[in-house]
Amino acid sequence: MFRLPVCPHCHTVYHYSDVRKIKKKKEEKCYHCGKSFKVSRLGYLVLLAIVVLLSVVVNVMILSSMSNILVSTAPIFITSFLAVVIALIFTPFFIKFK
Ligand SMILES: [Zn+2]
């Protein structure tokens, strides 16, 4: 289901750690064939939107299931934190090279 990005010219598969470094750049030269390609963060933005949406839904569910607002602050903090961590972990799988 999750695939790391490949070079659009020679289809060299990039490693997880490489993609993490490349994701901040707009353009990158392939280490294998030397041709340059554009780095697309569109998939990453979609991932971010989904994660934020999911954490909001989960937080609303937690809030509505708990009567005591003070008690529910901790799980909300945890789910929001987890959402950010998940987004960071899966970022390289949502970066595309064009
Ligand atoms: Zn290449």
Assign a percent range to the helix content. Answer: 55-70%
Shape: rod-shaped
- List bound small molecules: zinc ion
> How many DSSP helices?
3
N- to C-terminal distance: 20 Å
Main sheet? Answer: 3 strands, antiparallel
Number of strands: 3
Q: How many distinct domains? A: 1
Percent strand equals 5-15%
Broad structural category: mainly alpha
List SSEs in N-to-C order: HEEHHE
Mean pLDDT: 87
Stretches where pLDDT falls below 50 for ≥5 residues?
Answer: none
Outline:
The protein has 98 residues and is mainly α.
Explain what the structure shows.
- This protein is mainly alpha-helical and 98 residues long.
- It has one domain.
- 58% of the residues lie in helices and 10% in strands.
- It contains three helices and three strands, in the order αββααβ.
- A three-stranded antiparallel beta sheet has the order 1-2-3.
- 8% of the residues are buried.
- The structure holds zinc ion.
- The site of zinc ion has 8 residues, from loops.
- Zinc ion binds next to loops.
Distinctive features:
98 residues; 3 strands
What is the topology?
Elements: H1 16-22, E1 27-29, E2 36-40, H2 42-65, H3 69-94, E3 96-97
Bound molecules: zinc ion.
